[in-house]
Specification:
three-stranded antiparallel sheet; alpha+beta; single chain; 3 strands; globular; Alpha-Beta Plaits; about 45% helix
C-alpha cells in the first residue's frame, strides 16, 4: 500500500490508467480531500518489472504536481 498527497485529484485517474497500460491491476484504491490537497492510498499487483516502472511514473507525476503548485 502506498499513500501519497497531491494537489490535483485527477492524478488518481492518471495513476489507474498508467497501471492498466503497464499491465498491472489495482487491489486497493482510496482517496479523500483534505483542505486543498488530496490524500490517496493505493496498492497494485502485477509483474515486478511493470510495478517498478509504474512506481517510477507515479513518482514523476507527483513531482510534476508539486512543481506546478510552487
Amino acid at each position: 500500500m502506498r499513500t501519497v498527497t497531491a494537489n490535483d485529484g485527477r492524478i488518481l485517474a492518471r495513476i489507474i490508467h498508467l497501471a492498466h497500460r503497464f499491465g498491472c491491476t489495482y487491489t486497493s484504491v482510496a482517496a479523500r480531500q483534505t483542505g486543498a490537497a488530496y490524500r490517496m492510498e493505493f496498492a497494485f499487483a502485477g509483474p515486478g518489472d511493470a510495478l517498478r516502472r509504474l512506481d517510477a511514473q507515479i513518482t514523476k507525476l507527483l513531482d510534476d504536481d508539486r512543481e506546478t503548485m510552487e
